[in-house]
Write a sequence for this structure.
């Protein structure tokens, strides 16, 4: 059985009330000041490189504060036609170079790849490990925003994975060379070939940014990806704050809570931060989490969490 570090025990003690209280009831400033992360250099130009084409976009009044984040939509005006795109119409968004960056990063100020990258780097620094030695699996990689952040830190190997081919096409088009390989795969139903291929990368870090929940990556797919990470390897991801409170019924709440308290993960950094703005300018808060995997997670973990 894996041992827990002092930091992890402290965190577990801080979270003793978690099973009763929602996450936002916790004193975040106090908690964060006791954790290992420190603020790092800001990679301020991430995501700006591919803004080669400005699209005409129009936001609506009824945005994500009323609609679910997966239902929110906007219009892009092309040749006089208004095309309605949901935020989750990734195929259509990725087909248009720069549109994803313009909507989510330029207009809605998404900070998540930068945030997860920063705290991952800080956790490695604090553990006196080199970020350059990471071999990362970036799940839900999209057109490569997180890959770009990781490369900016000098990560040596980055393998992307997404469920739609348009994501890989956009990553190769907009950020050529960022990923050493890029798999189009459903992690709920991995083929033996893909599994073997990914195992060949000896992954020691999993990242998943702005991709968990909301009809995107379900718990069993995230679980499968976690299992590729070698013991002693790293995990960095973000998740909407409501996914960690008692009202969540997507399974992520139970799964992540159980992981946090398990002997399989050693938490290094957990932070509530502004992921992005809604179309109305309302801040949307997420948690960013960095942890070290300390032991193999058994098959039955999902069933134990009541998720399978
Ligand atoms: C909001 S984008 C995030 C992309 C990138 N990580 C970023 O930070 O910009 C979510 C991505 O998750 C992908 N996705 C959704 N469901 C998925 C699944 N089951 N497996 C893998 N990727 C998935 C989508 O295709 C999309 O590219």
């Amino acid at each position: 059985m894996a041992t827990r570090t002092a930091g992890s025990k402290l965190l577990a003690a801080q979270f003793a009330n978690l099973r009763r209280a929602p996450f936002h009831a916790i004193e975040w400033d106090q908690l964060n000041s006791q954790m290992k992360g420190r603020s790092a250099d800001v990679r301020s130009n991430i995501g700006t490189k591919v803004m080669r084409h400005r699209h005409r976009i129009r936001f609506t009044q009824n945005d994500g504060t009323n609609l679910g984040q997966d239902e929110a939509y906007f219009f892009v005006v092309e040749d006089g036609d208004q095309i309605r795109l949901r935020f989750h119409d990734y195929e259509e968004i990725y087909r248009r170079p720069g549109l994803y960056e313009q909507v989510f990063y330029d207009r809605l100020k998404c900070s998540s790849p930068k945030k997860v990258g920063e705290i991952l780097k800080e956790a490695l620094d604090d553990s006196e490990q080199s970020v350059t030695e990471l071999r990362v699996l970036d799940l839900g990689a999209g057109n490569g925003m997180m890959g770009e952040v990781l490369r900016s830190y000098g990560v040596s190997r980055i393998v992307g994975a997404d469920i739609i081919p348009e994501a890989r096409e956009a990553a190769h088009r907009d950020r050529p060379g960022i990923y050493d390989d890029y798999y189009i795969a459903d992690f709920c139903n991995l083929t033996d070939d893909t599994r073997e291929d990914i195992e060949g990368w000896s992954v020691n870090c999993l990242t998943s940014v702005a991709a968990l929940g909301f009809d995107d990556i379900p718990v069993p797919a995230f679980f499968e990806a976690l299992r590729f990470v070698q013991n002693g390897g790293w995990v960095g991801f973000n998740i909407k704050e409501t996914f960690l409170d008692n009202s969540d019924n997507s399974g992520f709440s139970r799964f992540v809570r159980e992981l946090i308290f398990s002997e399989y993960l050693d938490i290094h950094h957990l932070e509530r931060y502004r992921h992005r703005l809604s179309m109305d300018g309302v801040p949307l808060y997420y948690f960013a989490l960095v942890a070290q995997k300390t032991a193999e997670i058994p098959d039955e973990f999902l069933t134990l969490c009541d998720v399978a």
In short: The first strand starts at residue 56 and ends at 59.
